[in-house]
Amino acid sequence: MHYAQCNTMNHIIIQEASEADIPAIVAITQAAFAEYSDRLDPPSSVRDETAEKVLAKLAEGRAVLALVGGAPAGTVYYSPREGYVYLGRLAVLPERRGQGVGAALIAYVERRAAELGLPLVRLGVRVALPHLRAMYERLGYRVYEERRHPGYAVTTFVMMEKDIL
Question: For the segment 47-64, what is each residue's pLDDT rounded down to a tens digit?
Answer without folding.
Answer: 778 899 899 888 889 999
